[in-house]
């Protein structure tokens, strides 16, 4: 599953690094720049999950939307 997530080109850029997911133990947080991107990533994970013997528990999922228009220049 790590290969699938690490090869995803979506996500956000922070400090020059592209971030699309955070993982800890058996939890994964998906990070996307838009709703469409998140849906595409979920579809990809759904396609590959059985190959890794994993499941997605849709009963415990949560969505947080953060919108920022602040641009910080260095």
SSE topology:
Layout: H1 2-6, E1 12-14, E2 17-19, E3 21-24, E4 27-30, H2 35-48
Antiparallel strand pairs: 1-2, 3-4
Description:
This protein has 74 residues and is an alpha+beta fold. It has one domain. The protein has 2 helices and 4 strands. The protein has helices at 2-6, 35-48, and strands spanning 12-14, 17-19, 21-24, 27-30. The strands form 2 sheets. Strands 1-2 form a two-stranded antiparallel ribbon. β1 and β2 form a beta hairpin. The longest helix has 14 residues, at 35-48. The radius of gyration is 14 Å and the shape is globular. The mean pLDDT is 81. This is Reverse transcriptase domain-containing protein. It comes from Callosobruchus maculatus (Southern cowpea weevil).
């Amino acid at each position: 599953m790590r290969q699938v997530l690490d090869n995803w080109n979506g996500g956000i850029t922070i400090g020059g690094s592209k971030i699309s997911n955070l993982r800890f133990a058996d939890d994964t947080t998906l990070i996307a720049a838009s709703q469409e991107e998140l849906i595409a990533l979920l579809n990809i994970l759904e396609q590959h999950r059985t190959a890794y013997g994993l499941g997605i528990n849709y009963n415990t999922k949560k969505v947080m939307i953060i919108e920022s228009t602040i641009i910080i220049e260095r």
